[in-house]
Amino acid sequence: MLLLALAPLGLARAGEVRGRVALGVEGASLESAGPLVVYLEGVDGTLAFTVPRRSLEIHQKDAAFAPPFLAIAAGETVVMPNEDVIFHNVFSYSTPNDFDLGLYPRGDSRSKTFQYPGVVRIYCSIHESMNATIFVAPSSYFAVASATGEFAIRDVPPGKYRLRTWNRRLPPASEIVEVGATAPALANLVLAGGAAH
Questions:
Q1: Three-state DSSP class for 120?
Q2: Which domain holds residue 174?
Q3: How far is Cα of residue 112 from the mean position of the Cα atoms in its chain?
Q4: Residue 129 maps to which CATH number?
Q5: How do beta strands 118-124 and 131-137 pair?
Q6: 97: exposed, middle or buried (C-beta count within 10 Å: 0-12, 13-18, 19+)?
Q7: Is residue 88 domain-shared with residue 149, that is, in the same domain?
Q8: 63-89 confidence digits (pLDDT tens)
């Protein structure tokens, strides 16, 4: 269940959706649920956007991926350098973003462009304990909420959107929001219910 309240936020600039996500379950905390992504998509499921030009990396260091979680926009590229003295092989079975970068040594780096929205779980075929998650948002209009649930999605063109949440343990929620030309929207979301199965 999702409860959403929209109101003008006089101190913030236009073209922004900001607010807070809270759990409506006594004794539960967002912090223990892991990363929570809040993102926008078009009400028809599509949304035109410019792919950000950012330097994104997931390092292989001490037989682990760092960071273990990354949120990106569809079309962005992630560079995956090997900083260990041992070989690694980064791969994913997460279709349609599945890939296999092959074995490569310390000092070498491979990259992958993620064209499709969705969750990508990555692993190393040599080290079973290595794993990480990439959330590919359908547009550049997304934010990773803080441990206390606050988020801000900035530089949003005026219009009507579907606001969605993603977390690997919590059920997803969505609601229609409207961003005005002069006043940003304030969204307070309350997630209720058990963990996703």
A1: strand
A2: 2-45+139-191
A3: 17
A4: 2.60.40.420
A5: antiparallel
A6: buried
A7: no
A8: 999 999 999 999 999 999 999 999 999
